[in-house]
Amino acid sequence: MSTTTQPATRRGFDYKKFLANNGALVGLVVLCIALFIATPDFLTGQNLLNIGIQVSTVAVLAFGMTFVIVAGGIDLSVGAVAALSAMVSSWLFVGAGLPGWLALAGGLVAGLLAGVVNGLANAYGKLPSFIATLAMLSVARGLTLVISDGRPIKTPAEVSFLGGNLGPVPMPIVVLLVAALVASFLLNRTVIGRSMYAVGGNAEAARLSGLPVKRILVTVFALAGLFAALAGLLLAGRLDSAQPQAAAGYELDAIAAVVIGGASLSGGLGKISGTFVGALVLVVIRNGLNLLNVTSFWQQVVIGLVIALAVGVDVLRRKTRSS
Question: N or C: which end of the chain has fewer CB within 10 A?
Answer without folding.
Answer: N
